[in-house]
Amino acid sequence: MSRYHDIAEHTEKLIVDGVLRAGDRLPSVRQACRIHDVSPVTVTQAYYLLESRGLIEARPKSGYFVRARLRQNLREPDMTRPVASSTQLQVSDFIFQILESVRDPSVVPLGSSFPSPFLFPLDKLGRFLASAARKLDPLATVIDLPPGNEELRRQLALRYLASGASVSPDEIVITCGAMEALNLCLQAVARPGDLIAIESPAFYAGLQASERLGLKVIEIPTHPREGISMAALAETLQRHPVKACLFMLNFSNPTGSLVPDERRKELVELLHRHDVPLIEDDVYAELYFGRQAPLCTKAVDPHGMVMHVSSFSKNLAPGYRVGWVAAGRFAERVQRQKFSTTLATTIPVQIALAEYLKHGGYENHLRHLRRKLAEQEAALAAAIEPNFPEGTRLARPDGGYFLWLELPPQIDTLVLHQRTLARGISTAPGPIFSAKREFTHHLRLNFGHSDSQRQQDAMVTLGQLIAEQL
Asked: Does the entry feature the keyword DNA-binding, yes or no (predicted)?
């Protein structure tokens, strides 16, 4: 864990334990530097992180103070312990049954996989799209075939450069969302019957893609704060013929875990030694709550082993279905897979997004979006302890828009899902995130929608329905 995380966790414990109380002033940045023997930048990052969690607030010319809020005494879940054996997947029908039931817009979307569409500059994007359609060069219908629009790939390469990674536009392939990118990557490095390593729990879309391609999976133990167990992964690579790893290193769905910098570097080197590519599903990286973005994995990948997948769907343009993969040494394979499947991603949309990245104020939008999500995370987390039963555990993320809960063991979240749906509330039950349908008493909740009274009422109802199962 990084030093500023250590300081933030130490300070949060003081607040939770009541040593620091609402209204108390925290040490100044200068004082905290002396106490912890760190730089002002490190202290500032720690305070920003605590502020994003709703624990402290900055007062002009006065410093940082503990906010008035409900005490949070909930422990976080432990490291998962999946069975160390491969699994032939049969999850899609089961997952579709759950997902089909949460599409009704009248339902409180705690189980949704998407943030509120009202968080995005859709009107502004629409103007860029209209302009791109009017000015479309007929030659673009040929020139912008895979790997995709040159200017959009250049803008993405510039964003990689700003994060410390040297990525050529030539290794970037534009796709129809991150889901297509994941499929193309899997097809580029694995064949039916091959084995890939995934997290436990894992995002269900990765499970569905693996099943569709006839792949087997082996689940790696995962901690809800720091991600995959390196020891377990190393042992798995030693014992099994793993063809690829499919991981979320930044604000994993569903747990919200964030792999620390040093462990991320260790991961890249471990996979290089075993010649196993990493398919990194990184759609939430821009949604960090602190002042510093997570380390870009491509920045510590000198071997071209990381196939970095992302999209604009979660942070800018839901519904536009534009994603990409920076595929490293596998770029040509991915590009050929793209040619032989969907051929091209909508060209006017690519052009519009390229223009928006150049002139649309993307960074300003992201800053606003991060602040809003951090506020909503604090509000939803604060509604859990007073409404949920003793024994509930909660993973607090540093980004993204999901909370991962472990409920008392007697709670069946599949039954709970049906009962909450009957009351107009959706949830995402734990078993949809497992190849073996584990996590039967776990729950993922979405805080990507506004902190409305409707949502607060839903949390009260959810707590009551949970209590009825005890």
From this structure: yes
